[in-house]
Amino acid sequence: MSHPSTYEPSTGIERWFDARMPIPRVMHDQFLVFPTPRNLNYWWTFGGILTFMLAAQMATGIVLAMHYVPTADGAFDSVEKIMRDVNWGWLLRYAHTVGASMFFLAAFIHTFRGLYYGSYKAPREILWILGVLILLLMIATAFMGYSLVWGQMSFWAVTVITNLFSSLDALIPGLGTSLVQWIWGGFSVGGPTLNRLYALHYLLPFVIAGVVILHIWALHVPGSNNPTGVDVKSAKDTIPFHPYYTIKDGFALVLFLILFAGLLFYAPNFLGHPDNYIPANPLQTPPHIVPEWYFLPFYAILRAIPSKLFGVIGLIGSVGILFFVPWLDTSRIRSTSYRPIYKWFFWLFVINCLVLGYLGAQAPEGWYLFFGRVCTLYYFGFFLVIMPLLGFIERPKKLPGSITQSVLGPGSHPAEAPPPVAREPVREGAV
Amino acid sequence: MMSTLRTVTAFLIALSIPSLALAEEAGNGHGPVIEAQEWSFAPPFGHYDKAQLQRGYRVYKEVCANCHSMRLLSYRNLGEPGGPGFSPEAVETLAAQAQITDGPNDKGEMFQRPGRPSDRFRSPYPNDQAARVANNGALPPDLSVMAKAREGGPDYIYALLTGYEQPPADMEMSKGMQYNTAFPGHQIAMPNPLVDGVIPYTDGTKPTVDNYAKDVSAFLMWAAEPKLEERYKVGARIMIFLLVFAVIMYLSKRAVWARLHRRDHAHEA
Question: A76: nearest CA in chain B?
């Protein structure tokens, strides 16, 4: 793609494939020797972690689907049957629910990393947009997956979220209501709703996997951004993906798995809501309907806006606005590390998102509502006011001359030899 | 357009006049504060106390089961590893004490027979309506996953069972309701179920309300989370594996990246 292929098929079977469908060549060029900036920090390891999490969710999910019953009467009990009677069912189910949280944790960190280092700026706009699309698909998938448990919180979350479409009644009377009934497959949330959510929950991960492939493709054309935001200028600035980043990503993944396993084995319900262990009851509303933690900031925005239609627009806009970030940010500097003013606004934005998450779990009244509104204003103000204006006002710090100079110091003259690649055995300890 | 303006105005007005009152604890969906107890099954190395679970089953069967179902559990569960650990014979006996409705038989009729280990715990009422009629309109909830379905879990159950008190003088109680310190709203339809000495214990444990409440809370925790011990055991192995793996990965990463550092500083040597 972006760099000339260095692959030389050495065996007969490799030559056979290379003339027909060059999978070994693609693997070699895009995975083994792929030139990657030499200065990527640990925030760059979350791409690999996310790929792992998608695979893990699909693997556990497919087996769970073999035991799950997508009917209003059978859903809750079938989940409990998985927990009690299916071999290793408790592990599969907890791995899947805790896995969803870990997946979002990694996705949020990955997104904030892209935001901080300006990974959305030219020539990586499509890469970024595909990433936002994946985030949207993840949100849809997780929401549908949560509904399948068919506990009280599942049921009422579906009721609240599907009812949001009825806000369209404010535009064309009857449109929203008709749409909601079409989504429900009836006049209330029930068996038909559950069944279609299940079908879509099974479908969407494969769509995500497809978009992930496009995301990686779009990454491999311009190559990775890096913590300086300075473009790769010479071969000295890069190192082959393997072994340098396979081992670094691998180490980060193991650390991530320690956190995952800690939650999974010792506090699997810590991030869940106890109400979802009460079977769905259409006649009894829980005192306090809250989504899973990863939706809380968006939920806080929805409830901060005192109009149903505009609340829904705010909810959709809170993720949707990310699509436009490449053009909202007017600064030519990618990395926030070199933007002395923007840096403050960025970290305030991160704190703002955390506060929104906290507020999303509280009842929307009194000071909670007030701060919910302040935070919502800042959330959108950050994208719509600060990002566009700051690019004109701010005087960025001096950028390093190259990636290599940022690593080794401005006066450094690294050896001209190309970086050692996996093919060449390197004798450790040899002088 | 007008409605847009109105919304924006409403938004700005709403922003400028925050209501003064902070949300009440009850209005926020959280009940009263529940005191944490010490449990034998606390993570990361805990395990169920078999004798406690057996006593807890006894309390459940003698008291709770009169009104509360546990429809997700079977008698066979009582003998499975990681649980109360009743012997196979004891499980047979416990199951046979219940009369189970089975059928239809060859004549198309339902019939009663003694329970078998594969049967689910017998429910006290045939349906929710019957349960309500027998309980002043209140529905005794199923207890299968109760220990996971309330904030605080077993701590909450313990606090509830030991939380019956005289209502404060200024509190107006609804008809047929009892005052309970742990229950959200403090008015519970369930009468105080436990009295000292009502269930005899044979293992020397004092037959007090406090012990009954603790034992049945532990039993309900096992009922809700029967694979807890297995989970902790597998978890310990996985954590050890991951920690060792992390060290190996860290050293490997350093070794691999050292090649790069050697190259960069080769000219200095």
Answer: B72
Q: Do B259 and A420 touch (CB under 8 A)?
A: yes
> Higher-confidence residue: B19 or A342?
A342
CB A365 within 8 A of CB B27: yes
Lowest-confidence region among A198-202, B16-20, B34-38, B85-89? B16-20
CA distance to A282, A328, B191, B222, per residue, from B169 (Å): 37, 62, 19, 38
For residue A429, the chain B residues in CB contact (below 8 A) are none
Among B162, B191, B214, B168, smallest CA distance to B58 is for B214
Instruction: Name which of B14, B29, B255 is nearest A363 (Cβ-Cβ).
Output: B29
CA pair distance B8, B16, nearest whole angstrom: 13
- B98-132 residue pLDDT tens: 999 999 999 999 999 999 999 999 999 999 999 99
How many whole angstroms separate alpha carbon A40 and alpha carbon A37?
A: 6
Short-list B125, B121, B124, CA closest to B77: B121
CATH code of the domain made up of A24-408: 1.20.810.10
- Would you kindly state where each structural domain of chain A is located, as residue ranges? 24-408
- Separation of alpha carbons B24 and A233, rounded Å: 60
| DSSP 8-state code for residue B149 | S
A368 alpha-carbon distance from chain centroid: 27
Residue B62, classified by CB atoms within 10 Å of its CB into exposed (0-12), middle (13-18) or buried (19+), is middle
> Are residues B18 and A305, on separate chains, in Cβ contact within 8 Å?
no
Q: Which residue of B has its CA nearest to A86?
A: B227
Q: pLDDT for A347-397, tens place per residue? A: 999 999 999 999 999 998 999 999 999 999 999 999 999 999 999 999 999
Strands (E), B43-154: 99-102, 111-114
Distance CA B18, CA A134 (A): 37
Stretch 389-418 of chain A: residues touching chain B, C-beta under 8 Å: 407-408, 412-415, 417
ipTM: 0.91
Residue B38 to residue A17: CA distance in whole angstroms: 64
Residues of A known to be catalytic: 220, 224, 248-249, 292
| Contact status, residue B58 vs residue B199, Cβ threshold 8 Å | yes
* For residues A79-86, average pLDDT: 98
pLDDT in tens, B180-227: 999 999 999 999 999 999 999 999 999 999 999 999 999 999 999 999
Chain segment A158-210, per-residue pLDDT in tens: 999 999 999 999 999 999 999 999 999 999 999 999 999 999 999 999 999 99
Kindly indicate the confidence band of residue B261, based on its pLDDT and cuts at 50, 70 and 90: confident
Q: Give me the residues of B, 58-77, that contact A with CB < 8 A.
A: 72, 77
Q: Is A367 exposed, middle or buried (0-12, 13-18, 19+ CB in 10 A)?
A: middle
**Which positions 81-100 of B are in contact with A (Cβ < 8 Å)?**
none
Confidence of residue B4 (pLDDT cuts 50, 70, 90): low
Q: How far apart are the first and last CA of chain A?
A: 37
What domains, with CATH codes, occur in chain B? 34-226 (1.10.760.10)
Interface membership of B233 toward A (CB under 8 Å): no
Retrieve residue A70's tokens.
């997508």
Residues pairing with B99 in the sheet: B114
